[in-house]
Design brief:
The chain is α/β, with parallel strands linked by helices. The protein has 3 domains: 45 residues, no CATH class; 244 residues, TIM Barrel, CATH 3.20.20.70; 42 residues, no CATH class. It has 8 helices and 17 strands. The strands form 4 sheets. An 8-stranded mixed β-sheet has the order 7-8-9-10-11-12-13-14. A 3-stranded antiparallel β-sheet has the order 1-6-5, with no helix packed on it. Helix 4 packs across helix 6 and helix 7 crosses helix 8.
Length: 339
């Protein structure tokens, strides 16, 4: 454990956590809503610091990040806890651990995480699997250690940060994929125990105030967030506020959690969403989480339409980009981080 950032002391040894929009008021001896920030003697502790419980080497495309070092590997880590309570969560036991379960095991310090990547020639480390907001202190320290050794740091996040923490966090990330659950506040309230506005504020912060490479994902759940009107509003907002060159991923829902009775997302829905996004001007729209290899996985040049990156499964072949990320056919630079 380590003393947390982003909190203030209040009366009777309670603390006010300022990390995320929930702003939990935590009594002494209690944890916040995320279940991993503990008030011990009037001091807020980050219980997850140094204790990853999920570690794996993944393709960077699995995050998904399609315009960030395609075809490379990323050392992925996750801890426990989450500040959302999505009814369709596929990692509930990881994200919502038993409050009384002790944190055990050896500490993996940030410097060792970075060295592990360097030794194996892996160019980036990812804060992923569970929500990195709730282990921000550990992720930030890992980012510092990685940058000292020339390793990039990326994150996969719901974007549910407070104003006090979001700029610190994303200034230290080289890339992020933010999961926009829906473009409806009602969806966030009913199914995630959260609100939409802070997520949009985080997206605008990343785009306007940091150099962090941004991609966005929306999991399409039949009957919940896949209407024509919502898809039109979401994709138009991304194009206008984040830029037409922002990669947008539509992912297929698979029954999980408390929504095991909801059917899988039809391929036709993903195609319809992609077509709407392209019609609203977005240049790079992808579909994923489906068996087989449907259309919507290849990166094309927004200038001449040439094939730039071909993907099959989790593999990626840069067959149309030069070393600077320019199309070898017309010379137009494709937005992304390519080297």
């Amino acid at each position: 454990m380590k003393t947390a950032r982003y909190w203030t002391a209040t009366d009777n040894n309670a603390v006010q956590c300022e990390l995320c929009p929930h702003r939990c008021l935590i009594a002494e001896g209690r944890r916040g809503r995320c279940q991993v920030r503990l008030n011990q003697g009037g001091v807020l502790l980050a219980e997850t610091w140094g204790h990853p419980i999920a570690m794996q080497v993944d393709p960077i495309e699995k995050k998904p990040l399609n315009h960030f070092l395609p075809g490379t590997q990323v050392f992925s880590l996750g801890t426990r806890g989450c500040n959302l309570s999505c009814r369709f969560c596929q990692n509930w036991e990881l994200s919502h651990p038993d409050r009384e379960r002790p944190r055990t095991g050896e500490v993996l310090v940030p410097e060792d995480v970075a060295q592990w990547a360097v030794t194996r020639g892996i160019p980036s480390v990812a804060a992923t699997y569970n929500e990195p907001t709730v282990w921000a202190e550990y992720a930030l320290d890992i980012a510092d250690a990685c940058h000292e050794k020339g390793v990039r740091m990326v994150a996969v996040s719901s974007g549910y940060f407070a104003e006090a923490s979001r700029l610190d966090f994303f200034n230290k990330m080289d890339a992020v994929n933010v999961d926009v659950k829906s473009f409806r506040d009602d969806f966030y309230r009913r199914l995630c125990g959260a609100r939409l506005a802070p997520v949009l504020e985080t997206l605008l912060c990343i785009r306007r105030e940091t150099s962090c490479w941004l991609e966005v994902t929306t999991l399409l759940i039949p009957g919940e967030n896949d209407s024509e009107a919502e898809l039109d509003e979401l994709t138009a907002w991304v194009a206008e506020h984040l830029g037409v060159d922002t990669p947008l991923h539509f992912s297929a829902f698979h029954p999980a959690g408390e929504m095991a009775d909801v059917p899988r997302t039809p391929i036709a829905t993903l195609r319809r969403a992609r077509e709407r996004a392209l019609a609203n001007g977005l240049q790079h729209v992808y579909v994923g989480n489906l068996a087989g290899q449907p259309e919507g996985t290849t990166t094309f040049c927004p200038g001449c339409g040439a094939r730039l990156v071909t993907r099959e499964g989790w593999g990626a072949e840069r067959d149309g980009l030069d070393s600077a990320g320019a199309c070898i056919q017309c010379g137009r630079v494709c937005a992304g981080v390519w080297t």
